[in-house]
Amino acid sequence: MSDPAHPASPCTGVCAVDPVTQLCAGCSRTMDEIVAWFTAGADEKRAILAAVDKRLASGAAAD
Predict the structure, then answer these.
(1) How far is 19 from 21, CA to CA, in rounded Å?
(2) d(Cα 20, Cα 12) in Å, to the nearest integer?
(3) Which of 2, 27, 9 is nearest to 17 (CA)?
(4) What tens digit of pLDDT does each residue of 11-26 get?
(5) What are the residue ranges of helices labelled H in 1-63?
(6) Rounded to an integer, what distance in angstroms lies between the CA atom of residue 39 and that of residue 45?
(7) pTM for the full model?
(8) Strand partners for 30
(9) Which residues pair with 17 in a beta bridge?
(10) How far is residue 33's CA from residue 47's CA, in Å, rounded to a whole number?
């Protein structure tokens, strides 16, 4: 059962880190963000998701 206070993981199951951008091709998170997700609190998870959204909006995410 998931905790409604915590956002859902953005993982898409496509786990491949781009060697140039160092971002996951599936979720656009860094390895540090992926690892931190497991112990992060709800606010930390929202901050990670905001960073992902910013990357996607700027076009910095892996294609």
Answers:
(1) 6
(2) 20
(3) 27
(4) 999 999 999 999 999 9
(5) 31-37, 42-58
(6) 9
(7) 0.85
(8) 23
(9) 24
(10) 10
